[in-house]
Amino acid sequence: MANQKIIKPPFPMPRNFFWACAFFACILGFGLTGCNSSPPPDIAQPEMQQLALTQTEFSSLPGWPEKRPAGFIDAFSKTCARLSKKDKNAPIGDNGRFGYVQDWLDICEKMPEDEGLITSWLVENFNVFEVSDGISSEGLFTGYYEAYLSGSYEKTDRYNVPLRARPDDLIMVNLGEFRDELKGQRIAGRNIDGRLKPYENREQITSGALPQEQDKALLWVDSPIDAFFLEIQGSGIVKLENGETVRVGYAGQNGHLYKAIGKTLVEQNELQKEKVSMQSIRAWLENNPARATEIMNTNPSYVFFEESKDTEGPKGGEGIALTAERSLAIDHGIWPYGLPFWVSTQHPDETKAVFQKLMVGQDTGGAIKGAVRGDIFWGSGKRAELLAGKMKSRGTYYVFLPKDMNRLVMQ
Fold first, then answer.
1. Strand pairing category for 354-363 and 340-346
2. How confident is the prediction for the chain on average, in pLDDT?
3. Pick from 159, 141, 73, 99: which is nearest to 411 by CA?
């Protein structure tokens, strides 16, 4: 083992609502601090935590090395392309504790195209650190995917559920731009007589309470349940009757805290906690149509959408297209986008014992809170939906940081 260094940047872990609770993880409602729910004792986190990085050897990583990391090259190359457009002297994250753009571009330029050389490139250019919250190196890993729906540009008897476009009067505020201590906190509302007032909640919006000029349907779909799950995922593909497809993505949120309906169903003794999954929640909603709207409305958060012209796939918080099984959603209040990670957790497919892969932190979400917390993007289609819906695993991860920036990290 190398000499271990405990690196504790002086900032507490935020526990604040992120306006786009965009991932499946939110819907379960257990152990997910970003969804206005309380985690059970076995995975509860203290209010004030410190990110702790312990330097270790590559050989100590469970499952290392990965034999075929081709998808990682694609994912990390997108991050490198984004960084190439930034000021070379700009910090990665806050105060340069994760280095500067030029530090990372120097490494990007050395990245090989041959997947067989990735392991040696990582070892030569990075130090690897085990991540913990100062108490435990184990955390929760979930999954999300790109949803599929059937829809139409016109309202019909079948297609009568709107996917609403972002209203013109919706104002979303990143409070961290005003005060450093509010970093990670966001609110949304409407300007009334010079004052920002709360926006309508889900029940009010779906009941037609928005001003007529602000209530605009981007598309119409045939299932309120599908529309609800699309909000959880944050992006999806709508197939039209003529066979064409339209990709839609997150455009805004009404500013209300996310409340997980999985937790609500357990509290009402409709589901058993240990059996909560996306599939069990969907089944309950479909089997109880008289109460489905009532239960969905217990979540006051509402997401608005926009049409996306991206052909590569849905974009994550980093602003680049996500790569299936390589893009990881992380707590952006702690981590900057674009860092490479080694993830070791259980695979949701029972035929595979472990999920141990190189990934890149390229997205975030309201449920993704904590130093050791990850949401794996599984891609699109039925397989991705099944795996994302089943995934709720304990695991660990390790972050790769450039060798030449240890001085910066330690500051």
1. antiparallel
2. 86
3. 99
- CATH (domain of 263): 2.40.240.50
Token pair, residue 139, equals 């955390």
Asked whether residue 340 is domain-assigned, the answer is yes
376: domain CATH number is 2.40.40.10
Same-domain check for residues 169 and 301 = yes
315 belongs to a structural domain: no
Give the three-class secondary structure for 88: coil
Number of domains making up the chain = 2
Q: Tokens 């435990």 correspond to what residue? A: 136
> Other C-beta atoms within 10 Å of 157: how many?
6
Would you say the pTM of this structure is higher than 0.70? yes
Cα 203 to Cα 2: distance, rounded to the nearest angstrom? 56
User: Has residue 327 got a pLDDT over 80?
Assistant: yes
Taking the C-alpha atoms of residue 131 and residue 137, their distance in angstroms, rounded to an integer, is 6
Q: Give me the residues paired with residue 189 across strands.
A: 171, 198
Q: Are strands 186-192 and 195-198 parallel, antiparallel or unpaired?
A: antiparallel
